[in-house]
Amino acid sequence: MLPTESLGWNGLQTLKSRLSDRLARFTRNKMLDSRPHKLQNDAAFFEADLRHIFTKTPMAFNVSEHDYYDMDQMAQNLLASLNDMVNRDLIESLEGSNSQESKSPESGQFKRSRTAPHDIMVLGDKYPRLTALFEFLDISPDQFNLTTGPGLLLFSLPQGEAGNIAMGRVTKWKAFLEQYAVGTQKSQGFQLTSLQQEEFSAQEPSQDQPDLRQKRASAVVDTIFKEFRYHNCGKVHEIKLRVSDDWQTGPYQTALEMFLSSCPDGNVWQEAKCGSFHVTIDVAEKDSICAAIQRARGRGRKLYAFVDERGLFDISDKMPPKLSSLDKFTAESLGELLDQQAFRRITPRDYLEGATKEKFSSREKATLALALARCLMDFFDEDLELASYSWKPESIFFIRSSGAHASNRVPYISLRPKPSGYQAPDLLKTVGPGNPVLLSFARLLLEIDNGEHIPMDIHPESKANISKWGEMCAFVNVAEREGSGNYLKAVEGCLYLHMALPKSHDQTTASASEVLRKVIYDQVVRNLELMVNPQSSKRKRRDSVSRLPLAKKLTISSPPDMDSYEVLPGRAINLSAKRTGRPASRDEFEIAIVCALPLEYDAVSLLMDEFWDEDCDYYGRANGDPNTYTTGRIGKFDIVLVLLQTMGKVSAAGTSASLRSSYPGVRLILVTGICGGVPHPEGDEELLLGDVVLSKCVVQYDLGRQYPDEFVMRDMVEDSLGRAPKNVRNLLAIFETNLGRDRLEQKTAIHLQKIQNSPSRRRRRAKYQYPGAAQDKLFQSNYRHKHHISPQCLCAKSREKHVLVCKESKDLFCDELGCDNKYLVRRERLESKLQLEQEGRDQEAQAPSIFVGRIGSGDTVVKSGEDRDRIAKRHRLIAFEMEGAGVWDEVPCIVVKAVCDYADSHKNKIWQHFAAATAASATKALLERYIQTDKTSRS
């Protein structure tokens, strides 16, 4: 039975309808000076779950009589909690503006207009506060958050038991929807049914294999254009269709958001929502679409249109009244954004200057390309001007509310019908070299990826485009020399689609349209899915990127397991598939990783693709070697991982010498871990906590002679032991270029997310989370870490430069000692990270930068800002650590360490685990760029 008799179900549907397009972008409030308390966290989780519910709740489904009561009771319980949580300030403002027509919500009595929608009349007596909220939303044009975030909130999560009950109810309803969606509900009574299913699509695919190749929007669009042609007002109407995951990958028959051109002025647009709605339609109510647009414009409201095989019906009077907000939108075309360089690759300069907020990342560009490719699959065989109109940058728009952040851009595609009398040729015969639709779409993909216009006139006839098609094929071939990325494979899929078509269509019972959509999906859409979410190649399609939201939900969650694919256009490298068996002997190991601390070792181990010694030790060690080794694989390299007994150069030298005796084939050692950083190395860049440093050379800054007037350094490793091998120097030289550094940083960020989301370490992974930019504090070099406010301690009273600091203060945090924030050093890059966090873009905020330079190595822990600056300036250092010089003396090495403190007296351990994770991530990213050496045969 359908749930339409359920008061709880209808209430949630009403709330969902009222909140459509009324919610502001979801961001959590960021507490810069302290961690958010429990109520704030609960409110954020409650809002996220409630938004999820409004997104996933279907229009209707069949439910057995046995399960109907439980479903209705769950929904009514949630409505009861929401009714109690309605913001009183909203109701009071409504009463103040309409005090003559309403009574107190607590009385449960309201005097309503006779024309009030039926849903409000039904819910009013049982949920008076929600009814008042609906009335408030009907007269307010603003956008809101639910329980957290800036501005006015619709609900207030109570403290104590009431809040716990509300949290439990929203969680229970969310779990019900999720179980129902994936078919795991214990009761088999729940079955999804699409309203008027036969009108728009073929038979519903199975739950295990939903068919994303089905037509989704084209039936509705085709019906709308047929209505325009039938009524023939003399104008060529256009549609600007919202490109949304809701209709591309969501439930069938999802209504489409769009703008319709008006008449007689085609430059005036009417906001509309068209599709299937749960309403009763009378054929006698059918009206001209042009008249419906004019009527909605006159009322200043959004147009709702029901579409089926009988045509289009204006149902605006049957739907909740929603004011049109067209005058509050800002629109930018893709062409304009290309001119503004918004699609150019993000550079370190952009990051430092705060320009990343206006630019599209590689992932965002790929997600946009994926959404447009699904439009190609949906509309390819429709009578639309795709090549000459829709696939031009000037016809793709990004619309956002006026004053909203650039991250709220929502893409729209412009659609225009072909001239009347157009005769469609044989569909499959049109697909060949130079096909204008496919060639123009391939050009569009390259424009999005490269961030610039491609001047190329495409002719309506395929034969006239052969030379341009050949030029584009040649360009893609050259671009692929640097890597065969899935993005370029999608471009190739457009150019060579004809080669993937079946040789004889007679061999299949599928229609030409179905055959073509399948090929477009396999050759174009699927490659972009793998580009956006590589993990989708390992999962069933229902778990793939199709569930990811569009618009700048593009930065939503952490990518799960991204070992196997590079998430950069044209750079796909399948690393984890390179090796399938373990090495035969110790001689075959080429790379060693040395860690000084267990926390460093743990972080590296999380990024090992395979372990060779899980069952037992296959390789042993040489006589006299005291080391204990862990063996495995990272990408294409067999790795030997070793943990030092103690920190320092001596321990590192002894361990690396023994390692060389047991593993003679090792050609490179990576010393991975944490270090102290120089906040302002040479140049104008700022080094922050969590950033990674790579050693161009290692300097023993504490080895030398102490004279009465100065300390003279005795030895520089760079000079005494010679430079690093040429292959290492060449690799580091690449990382000093903008391109090489950008690639390394992006891969490091991906591997960092993998550590943070490692499913096998759920109880331990929290320690690898980003501590937050507010915890990154750099004090002036001469500002000492000591008691500043304690009257009992002598060190708090003295202001002398060389005052003795009490032992207690060395183990306390700055907040406990009263270290004054007015002595903090202002840094632009840190402020950019704070801004990213405030916008909810934590993944971007935590992404480390990578520096290549000279690293100081000594047996002394530097804990003085003044000494740090003096030594760093003298030797041009970017960081301090304790093991690099010991290893360098034995085997060619690269120090890969992340900054966990600023080598001053204020250092603490807050950043150590996160820094260990970023160093391990950079190590894996570096190995993916390190060229493997051919093995020399041994007699």
From TrEMBL:
SUPFAM superfamilies: Purine and uridine phosphorylases. Residues 94-115 are annotated as: Disordered. Residues 95-107 have a biased composition (Polar residues). GO terms for biological process: nucleoside metabolic process. Pfam families: DUF7580 (PF24476), PNP_UDP_1 (PF01048). Residues 590-707 form the Nucleoside phosphorylase domain. Gene3D superfamilies: Nucleoside phosphorylase domain. Residues 209-534 form the DUF7580 domain. InterPro entries: DUF7580, NLR-like, Nucleoside_phosphorylase_d, Nucleoside_phosphorylase_sf. GO terms for molecular function: catalytic activity. This is Uncharacterized protein. It comes from Penicillium expansum (Blue mold rot fungus).
